[in-house]
Amino acid sequence: MALPDVVSREQWLQARLSLLGQEKEMTRQRDRLNADRRRLPMVRIDKEYVFEGPEGAAGLTDLFDGSRQLMVQHVMFGPDWERPCPSCSGAISNMVPSVFSGLRTRKTTFVLVSRAPYARIAEAKEQRGWDVPWYSSYSSDFNYDFEVSVDKAGVKEPRYNYRDEPELRGEDAPTELPGISCFLRDGDEVFHTYSSFARGMDYNWTLYPLLDLTALGRQEEWEEPKDRVEAPRGAVPTFDE
After folding, report:
1. N or C: which terminal CB in the chain sees fewer CB atoms within 10 Å?
2. What is the pLDDT averaged over residues 173-187?
3. In this structure, are strands 134-136 and 108-114 parallel, antiparallel, or unpaired?
């Protein structure tokens, strides 16, 4: 393994202070980016979506559960899949209950949505011991409209992460993709405010920000510097930007 150079404490402190300047600028840049995200315009949702949950059929407004905002994590779990995506599952398991309760104190509800039938979702949820609400969008266009499910029949040009992805028509291409979407409720009206996909979801997983502080990082093949891990955890997904 190509470990970091060994230096004196004084040399390390000099290098650390140099990096600290970059970190502080990144913090300021993140603040600016978050402010610009809050300035994004929004789109009124006029379409009626029907989901299935523990209480039966539910509309999009029902998913808010009385909150002003709604965050939907699109979990990769297709109608014919035996189990949900391991990566999605790992990200959700990594979110402790205090995260969800903290969101609720800020009038924000967090739910999961997949195209798998609800009976299969309920089984997977029980196996994992999750308390977070999880709904099936099997009978609606929700996943297609928010571009996390791919229409293999070719009715709609495959798009992901805001760009055409014709290779998603390939025989071995995934039918379900990861994403997160945010909505705002104003009375009885619902608006779509934001969606993010692929690497844009990195920091929704608490594991990644913690590993990014370490010398060995996430231990994935794409990371620099190279040769820092004995058993790489795999390459970044194809749609990585």
Report:
1. N
2. 93
3. parallel
pTM: 0.86
Angle at 200 between CA 196 and CA 204, to 5 degrees: 95
- Taking each continuous run of H as one helix and of E as one strand, the counts in the chain are 7, 10
Q: What is the mean pLDDT of residues 169-180?
A: 88
Q: Which residue has the tokens 């970190």?
A: 23
- The amino acid present at 98, given as its one-letter code, is S
Q: Which residues 6+ apart lie within 8 Å of 127 measured at CB? A: none
- d(Cα 34, Cα 28) in Å, to the nearest integer? 10
CATH of domain 43-201: 3.40.30.10
> Residue holding tokens 């009375």?
187
* The amino acid at 89: S
Query: What tokens does 176 get?
Result: 């379900």
Supply the pLDDT for residue 162: 93
Q: Assess contact for 76 and 176: CB atoms under 8 A.
A: yes
* Chain centre to alpha carbon of residue 33: 18
Residue owning tokens 């949702």: 45
| pLDDT band (50, 70, 90) for residue 5 | very high
List, as one string, the DSSP characters of 62-87. Answer: HHTTT-SEEEEEE----TT-SS--HH
Model pLDDT for residues 68-97, shown as the tens digit of each residue: 999 999 999 999 999 999 988 888 888 878
Asked if residue 68 lies in contact with residue 184, where contact means CB atoms within 8 angstroms, the answer is: yes
Q: How far is CA 80 from CA 114, 135, 138, 176, in A?
A: 12, 16, 11, 11
What single-letter amino acid sits at 38? R
pLDDT (average), residues 202-217: 79
Pairing of strands 43-44, 108-114: unpaired
